[in-house]
Amino acid sequence: MGAPSALPLLLLFACCWAPCWANLSQDGYWQEQKLELGTLAPLDEAISSTVWSTPDMLVSQDSQPWTSDETVVAGSTVVLKCQVKNHENSSLQWSNPAQQTLYFGEKRALRDNRIQLVKSTPHELSISISNVALADEGEYTCSIFTMPVRTAKALITVLGIPQKPIITGYKSALQEKETTTLKCQSSGSKPAAHLTWRKGEKELQGEQTRIQEDPNGKTFTVSSSVTFQVTREDDGADIVCSANHESLDGADRSTSQRIEVLYTPTAKIRPDPPHPREGQKLLLYCEGRGNPVPQQYLWEKEGSVPPLKITQESALIFPFLNKSDSGTYGCTATSNMGSYKAYYTLNVNDPSPVPSSSSTYHAIIGGIVAFIVFLLLILFIFLGHYLIRHKGTYLTHEAKGSDDAPDADTAIINAEGGQSGGDDKKEYFI
Fold first, then answer.
1. Region annotation Disordered: residue ranges (predicted)?
2. Looking at the domain covering 264-346, what would its CATH class be?
3. pLDDT value at position 358?
4. What are phi and psi of 344, to 5 degrees?
5. Do domains 58-158 and 264-346 have the same CATH topology?
6. What is the number of other CB atoms lying within 10 angstroms of the CB of residue 161?
């Protein structure tokens, strides 16, 4: 007999090795399920199983686990929750983006103290990751070991918090009407932060934010600049650069730069007292304002040489005002940024006092007191008249009650005719 044909052997070899790379579809083809359990002992190596399945043997959709994507700020804690309706007596498992098993049911698989078990039941497996870092970002897998194995993905997005902005470009004091440019930069944001400018409470229009990827390939550095012309009102103003980012949750992350502006002085003259009168002492204060503050003050009177008056710092002093002191006075305030001249017209009034609210008050009080005294006087007059009349009536009644007193007719006759019943004469008044 000849050598046996090699064709049957080749067909048998092909049938034996086909499951290693073929998958069975719903039409009855071969399937391969490769289960990788990471570092979980004793399932620390990949397990491969080959099953023959048909459409009638497909697992119910109730065995499909589900989870959700999570967004977390770097440094905080995130919770991954995986749930399944029909667990088919199988356990749930969480794996990280590197396909390392984190938890298989209640069993910890990866030694990372940041990862803790939150809840483990046949229908749910929840874990937490604290102090989340940018390196923790990626797709996490929840698996249930039914036949076939079913999985669900959860994407963790880690937000990088922008660092506090840094302002550069300001070196020294600026002069009035000078144009300056300030720059602002912040790094470490993910996604890229947005920079804004303001002066006090007023928004400044800066250039569009520039974005550059950091060397770690995950975060970004943003920068912006603003150019503006300063005025004297800007002296002491705060120029603020703010980083706006979703990881801040509305919190303010900003840096301010206070600027100094040099400008020419201004001045005004203030009299003390406000209404000077002849014979009084008067001080004229020259109040200067500027940056730097004026250090020199020069007084003069229009139409004459500067008056020989005693000066105290910026004040012009009149110890005893005269009518001749009336006129227009000028004060020149000078700094190294320039000079400014203010004017004041002095009119010396008569020495009679100016009615004040105090004197008016006393006059009102005096009038009220005089009115009260007048009323009391009238009351006393009427009272005196009343007492006098009632005293005469009292004497008449007393005479009528006496034994020696005549009756009324006799009294009238005696009064008219001068007749008397005795040596003594008595007169009665009614």
1. 399-430
2. mainly beta
3. 58
4. -150, 130
5. yes
6. 19
